[in-house]
Amino acid sequence: MTDDSEAMSVDEEPTSKAKPKATKKRKAEDDDQRPAKKQKRREDTDPWKLKSPAVRRDWTQMKAPPLEMFHFARKVVDEYTYLDGKIHSMVTNITAERHWVLSGTPPIHDFGALKTISAFLNLHLGVDDDGEGQSLQVKKRKREQTAVEKFHSFREVHSLEWHAHRHELGQGFLDRFVRQNIAEIDEIPSTTEIKSVNLPAAERAIYLELEHHLRALDMTVKRGKKSESDREKRVAQALGESGTAEEALLKRCSHFDLDTSDKENAMKACEVIVEERKKQLDNCKAELLKKLGEALKMEQKIGKVEGESLFREYVRVTRNEGVGDKDATEQAQELLNEAQIPANLKGVTNKQVDGKNKGKGKDEGLSNSKKEQIWEHREQTHEIRRITKELVGRVRSLRYFTAVRDLQRQREVPPVVSCPSCGRDEVPIEEVAVLSSCGHMGCLKCVMECADKEECVYAASGACRAAARVLNVVKGDTLGVDDEARDGRGKHYGLKLEQVIHLIKKTIPKEERVLIFVQFPDLMKKVAEALSANGIEFLEIKGSASQKSKNLEKFQSDSKERALLLNVMDESASGANLTSASHAIFLSPLLAPSQEIYDACETQAVGRLRRFGQTRLVHIWRFLSTNTIDEEIYEQRTKPKRV
Ligand SMILES: [Zn+2]
Ligand SMILES: [Zn+2]
């Protein structure tokens, strides 16, 4: 092996980031191959056959020699930003005369980011400063700090001059070592088209229900860890395979398919959801009852305390004022009775006290164990409040879905709806409206009027304090209609996917090739299923690394399959050249933890086809379901940036 690039000047700029797929190009210098020095342990077995006569004669006969044995003429690291952990240290430790790192989206916004480049060049730019870097990097750095380092960074606050000097140093580094190519991508024309998908009523109903449902459970929910309480288990169930509420919502507005059912369409699925929600409501009530019992026991153990405890406040409010929803209030009060919670604890004053002392009691003179019990009691009450909030959400969900189900059966059994606002009985079906936020129904005119004021049509009567928006108003006669037309036409996958399929089959010319970007593996599965069912041949980037690259190559070399399905976050193929395609379809906006990651992934994705070698006009299609999290995320990420 000889190195013919030896003649290249070190200062020459990288010609193109379109490098061959191999992440590293290693050339061995032929004069540096001597058997390793002192050998020990596993190496004693000479796994590389260094001592065999054949290798002694000709070093290329070695079996899988470790890379560290070589000193390379040139080391090129493509997509260096993805290296991490062991691989990072392995790669940085390989010695070479010249070091190159390549990236389409190198972070250079601060000193910490520059240090990630300089690490590959064996340059030490300077010490870490805790004030610098993105939160993610800072966190990682802090994890790796020793206690002494932590203390040190605490003690040492750097001066403005120090930072100014560092800035100069960083700029010097950039000037000297970093080169950027920008021209090529701008020369390749592209158009972006946003395809707004107006979800049909039944799909919208299901989407809205999940949104309210998750909101009731607290939108910030994440999948719990090991010690899952019953409540956490229910949250996990609501999330399905998703890690967060946003993820679950993004999936729900991209395809129609419920994990809990194999029902053919949204209409039939409502039936299933009603049953499921009933069960979940029962679980929730059982848990609340149990917690109430425990809190009561604790209260009796604690005995008399001064002022109104948090638990007492909860009981009083639930009994007198309710929980903001008439049905839910009745159910909560029933549970209070069932748990036999007296209006007054014997010997405990239940008189209201002014805010200052509320729930605190006087701590002086209390033993430690008593204080602990009081603390525990408060914690129990917090949990009770959370479950009560969930109960309200579940009552509303169930009411809403029961209404949707009944409205969908309108052809068989027309539902009887009366309007609480104008008092009309038997509102004709064309004029019925239901609120997705709480499931209450009335006539469209009254429901809209109230939604304008952000309240439920039952607000005036005091039966419902749910906040309503005009977006939450679902017209009764639209439910069930869109599914009617689809009946008997086999399984459908939701309007968005159907439009994607229509785009590929009817709009995009047959000879043009398409990349379909999807973010989540389970969603990819659904998309794959929909493509197959609609007779669209496609390749997929999944499985082992070799399988992935095989499919990438196959696609790029004009495979008969004209579509390629890939995960937008998949780093393995991030540098791959896919210029044989001229269309990129984004099924949904990218859910990313930060703007930088969003931008980087977008650039990567589009960069696969909008790059040197592209001969056609590049079309970018973005599918967004209107009035869903799709639009929310897209607007947030694409709003003009501050300079
Ligand atoms: Zn009315
Ligand atoms: Zn209501």
Descriptive keywords:
single chain, 643 residues, alpha/beta, Rossmann fold, three-stranded mixed β-sheet, globular, binds zinc ion, ATP binding, hydrolase activity, Helicase C-terminal domain-containing protein, nucleotide-binding
Protein model, in words:
By secondary structure, the protein is of the alpha/beta class. The chain is 43% helix and 10% strand. The chain has 21 helices and 12 strands. It has helices spanning 53-57, 85-93, 111-118, 135-144, 147-155, 160-177, 183-186, 201-217, 230-239, 245-252, 266-302, 310-320, 326-338, 368-408, 444-452, 481-486, 495-507, 521-533, 545-556, 595-607, 629-638; strands spanning 24-28, 71-78, 95-102, 190-197, 432-435, 441-443, 473-475, 514-518, 538-540, 563-567, 583-586, 618-625. Helix 8 (201-217) runs antiparallel to helix 10. The longest helix is centred in the middle third of the chain and has 41 residues, at 368-408. The protein is globular, with a radius of gyration of 32 Å. Bound molecules: zinc ion (2 copies). The site of one zinc ion has 8 residues, from strand 6 and helix 15. One zinc ion (ZN) binds next to strand 6 and helix 15.
